[in-house]
Amino acid sequence: MIFFIILSMTINATALPVKSLCITFYDPNKLSPLTYARPSTQALMNRLIVLNLGRVFSVRGDENQVDLLNKIEDLRPFIEDFLKSWHKMSLEQRKSELELILQSIKVYRELDQFFNMQLYLGQKAYSPIEAYVEREIFNRLVTYMRLLPNELRFKIFRPTYDLTLKNNTKMGALLVDNLEQRIEQEFYQTEGIPYKEFVRRMKGSLDVRIKQAISIIDSNQINFVMYRTEGRRNDISVSGFINQFITKTSGGSLLPDMRNSTEASMLNVPLKDYETYSAHLKPKYGTFRVSEVSGLSNNTTGASRYGADIFVFKTEEIKDRLTFYIDDSLGRQTGIGNLNGQPDWTKFMIPWRFRYLMIPFMLDGLSKSKFDIPTIKLSDLPAEINLNLLRGLEKEKSLINLVGDQVNTFQGAYWETQYFGILTLKHVKEFIFTDNPPSGKFLIELRRHGVIITDGRGQLPKPWDEFDTTKPPKKENEFNFFGSVGLPVLSTSPFGGTSGIFPISPIPPEITK
Prior knowledge:
Blueprint: H1 3-6, H2 39-52, H3 62-70, H4 75-86, H5 91-121, H6 128-145, H7 163-191, H8 195-203, H9 208-218, E1 222-228, H10 233-239, H11 244-247, H12 256-266, H13 271-274, E2 284-290, E3 297-298, E4 309-313, H14 315-318, E5 322-325, E6 350-351, H15 359-366, E7 370-371, E8 375-377, H16 388-392, E9 409-411, E10 416-419, E11 428-433, H17 440-448, E12 452-455, E13 462-463, H18 509-512
Helix pairs in contact: 2-4, 2-5, 9-15, 10-17
């Protein structure tokens, strides 16, 4: 068949995963599977064929992703050239051109059949990243096709729905639900009281700091956030937030074996089972940050080094797949107390439902008007926080950090959050930039998802003024040991006008005459 001339691949008799496919993109100007009467038609159809090959393109990292999507921009000038020539053709010439178009449609349909067959052979081993790229190609190609005369438009098959997205979401919620049951048991075993009794004691406390902590928690002022570099913006708009099992990179420690071991242990899952879990199910790490209305400054220790962009998530929508920890979880399988060599409730990632367990670790920071890193000074705890685990810290000197002259002090590296399953821009409620503002495709996607955009470059965050080009000085109200209102309406152009990645000029007047 014609499309095999331009498709480079190997197929075994046995089932192949989709990722084994590899498409070679030839120079479109040299790609001539059909004989065209006019150069403009040849250039146009060659590009349409190449773009449709993206349906079976194997995604092998972010660079290939971006490279594949950027190829679509090449289509624009050739569509304009084709429109110019089309309007100058006679009816007989148009008939000849359409016959060639029909041949290309046949090529595309054969390719689509092969794509579906390969999905079947690969047992639908289709990863979420590939699904996002597939939909992105589909949406952009549809937009370009709208620029063509009706006679030249052909059917573009809608991408297959990826069931693994839904399955990973369900599995993430199930993981956290099982963990909740284990935490309930461990807390009772360690403390001798059920968690709901601990909550009752906290709510009945007269301590000012405990009351403040409860107010902050109950009013949803503690947000789950991720710090990311500006270079990841377009990737995030396409494939969402992914972990190091997928990217093979890390802003911290790239230790997949150790992460598997730690995460399995802290999730109460056998390691041999956990190693078989989808990489898209495994946690994406972030941190906590309090909102500005709390009046507290945020300690960005261990977080801001991951990037200048801050994504604030809709906690209420993702709480069933959200956990946290009071330290860097990597290597913390034994918990912080480990009383008499026995496990305790800090051995596990803590589901969001148990968020009142944050209170003892918040009090030291609240006394300084800060949302600080998790810290406990045993000499400064209210009497109602009478937890066996915390008293046990006095016996575990090797696990206690010496902070100044406070010997009996526990201090975690940072608040660590873990999110299980698929996480995309639709789960983001606010985007805070602390360096360069958003632009292009990323800006379009933020607005499409209704994300509030905040300028975090000054002393105080403020709604972003897109037309203010001045760069305010760095704010000083946040400290780092490691060194929302309505927005202007975007252009109605599907490509975002001059601010989009694909600025398309209007069809020249002579074409419409």
